[in-house]
Amino acid sequence: MAEEIKQENQQEQIFAEEETNSDEQVDSVETEKNEKNPEDEIIKELQAKLEESENRYLRLRADFDNFRRRVQIDKEANEKYRAQNLATNLLPAIDNLERAMQITPENEQTKQLLQGVEMVYRNIIDALKQEGIEMIEAVGKEFDPNFHQAIMQGEDESFGSNIVIEEFQKGYILKDRVIRPSMVKVNQ
Fold it and tell me: Keywords for this entry (predicted)?
């Protein structure tokens, strides 16, 4: 019997040790969880900061791409319409040359001078055409407010309604942009 009691005591000790070990394991697992929570929080914080930085990077990259695209469009427009300022400054001189060519020569010197003025005029018009600047057709065409500026109305049986019957000042267009509309008289 003493041996049985001894075995029971040993078994009780083993159970007590197992309970102590399991309690210690539970405590150590809880301690590990408590220790991991601050690490998890730090990891989550760092991941949030990383996502924010990535989002900021993507937005900055998109802004830069948009900026580059706008600069390219502006550069193309400047190249396409580079002759506009020059043409705008030359138009009054062209108008004066056209008026000078309307005189009727009375002698040989005036005829030669008129021929020289016509040559200069043609050279200027050719140079403008090379840059993409052309005259707007007006007389006999239907009035278009995008290309014509009506300053008078008239009645002419030989023209239909809303047709340009006379041009007072020529209009010019640069590629697809109107530099100056034609000043015209429109039939009612």
Answer: Chaperone, Coiled coil, Cytoplasm, Stress response
